[in-house]
Amino acid sequence: MSVAAAVIYAPVLAVSLIASPPHLTARSWLFLAGTAVLQTGYFVFLLRAYRIGDLSAVYPIGRGSGALLAALGGIAILGERPGPAGLAGIGLLVTGVIVVGMPARTGQSPAPGAILFAVATGIFIAAYTLWDKIAVTTVGNPPLLQGYAALAGMVPMLAPFALADAARTRLVWHRYRRQVLGAALLSPLAYVLVLVAMTFTSVAAVAPAREVSVLFGVVLGRRLLGEGGLARRLTGAAAIVAGIIAVTIG
Question: What is the pTM of this model?
Fold first, then answer.
């Protein structure tokens, strides 16, 4: 996905840089390299969580905890000050993540390892969100360049994993080429839009707002993968979405 996305967006980046050449300092390059490291960690932990846990549990926990930690980081590190609605939203986020992760009466509960990996994923989400917020505001890196740096940086860092199991990598490419190309097109585009939003909006609002997708993750986990605990996980995901809306408003 990283290789395909780097190829797809290279012409777009080239046109952008020619039209508006950025002034890059040593600090700019540091933030370009750092986002690649953080997003590589995010993908590694996310995929490990998916390997041992359900999509409908891992996705809400990872995205919800990431939104929560990013909002708290915006308060503690960037000096952002949410109002009462924002604070209530943070509480709803915490509640939603707990509900999604708690054991079900039927005995179908997320594996402890999956929860740990999902929370680790959330930590990386918060870290790269705050890092990139500083990059596109304080440092002045263009959002498209900052987003592209993650793609280009992930290629050499993830290549050893792909090359170590070359047969499996080729199999995935042949069987799921359409999905890989779809993710390569949509995932970077979505995050570049987030970076653009963070140039003029607080991270405490943007980071939670992008996680309304948790409801879709729960529904798709049930419909496409046959995962259980739908009612409980929908309740937790709904609390996460309600918290996201409250944080955005507040």
Answer: 0.79
